[in-house]
Design a protein that fits this description.
Two copies of one chain form a homodimer.
Chain A: H1 21-29, E1 34-35, H2 36-46, H3 53-65, E2 69-74, E3 82-87, H4 89-114
Antiparallel strand pairs in A: 1-3, 2-3
Helix pairs in contact in A: 1-2, 1-4, 2-3
Chain B binds a DNA duplex through helix 3.
Chain lengths: ~120, ~120
DNA sequence: GCGACTAGGTGCACTGTACATCTAGTCGCG
DNA sequence: CGCGACTAGATGTACAGTGCACCTAGTCGC
C-alpha cells in the first residue's frame, strides 16, 4: 500500500465516497491510537476509496480543535518524529455515534436499493 | 411533505449524506420524467436526508450540460410552468452505474461494520 | 387587489478537497 | 562524507459543492 506524497490511491475498485473521511477517521482511531500515516492505511482497509494524506492531517487538526482527538509527538528513531493521535472521551462517544450513522446509511441503502426496479 | 422556499427538510431521523445528491437524483429520474419540485419528494422518499431545492435545480442544470438529462417546459395550468426532466440515453446508463455504486457502498459498509468491535 | 401556494432560479459566503510543494528526520550505499 | 530513497507531517492555492437568503412569476380563492 504505497502512499506517495500527494497520492490519492485511486483503486480500480469502488470505495466509500470522500465525505466519509471524518466518520471513518474517528472510527479507525477507536481501534487504538496511531499516527496519520498509518491511519491512512487503516482507512483504506476500512473501505475508503480516496485517501489523501493532506486531507487526513488537516482533518486531524480539525478534530483536535474540536477536542475529539488529542495528540503528542513521539520520536520514532526510524524516520521523522510521529504525531500520535488518541481519541478523547468526547471522541470515543463520537465514534459510537458515527458507527450508528454508518449503520443507518447502510440500512437506508438497503431499503432504497430494494425500491429500484432495474439491476 | 412541505418544501418551503429554501427549506432543507431536516428530518429528525438520519439520512443519506448530501454527497449522494447526484447519484440519487439520476436514479429517481430513472423512475420516470418529472420536474424538480416533485423530484425533491422522490429523493426524500429515497432516503436523502437534506433535500435543498436550490441544490436540486442547480444539479439538474449541471446534468443537462453533461447531456445526462434533457428538459422541456410544460404549462401546468395550475401554477407556474414546470420544467420536466428526462434521462437521456447516457443518463439511463449513468443511472445503472449509480445503482451499482450505491450497491458497492452498501457492501463496503457491511464489511466495514463487521470489523467494528463496539456497538 | 392581495395573500397563499407552487415552481424555478440567483447571489454569496463558507467549507471541503485535490494537487503540488515544502520541511525534516533516518538509513543504506559508494 | 554526500546523496538518494523513504517516512512523516504540513502548507498554499485554486476550485467545486452547498446552505441560506432572497427574487421572479404563475394560479387560485377571497
Amino acid at each position: 500500500m504505497p502512499f506517495g506524497r500527494g497520492t490519492t490511491t485511486t483503486m480500480t475498485e469502488v470505495g466509500l465516497p470522500r465525505s466519509f473521511l471524518r466518520p471513518v477517521l474517528i472510527i479507525v482511531l477507536g481501534n487504538g491510537p496511531s499516527h496519520g500515516y498509518e491511519l491512512a492505511v487503516r482507512m483504506w482497509e476500512f473501505g475508503l476509496a480516496t485517501v489523501d494524506l493532506a486531507g487526513i492531517y488537516r482533518m486531524l487538526r480539525v478534530l483536535e480543535r474540536e477536542d475529539l482527538v488529542a495528540s503528542e509527538w513521539e520520536p520514532s528513531g526510524h524516520g521523522p518524529p510521529r504525531r500520535v493521535h488518541t481519541l478523547t472521551e468526547a471522541g470515543a462517544a463520537a465514534a459510537i455515534d458515527h458507527v450508528a450513522f454508518l449503520r443507518d446509511v447502510r440500512n437506508l441503502l438497503d431499503r432504497a436499493l430494494d425500491s429500484v426496479p432495474s439491476t
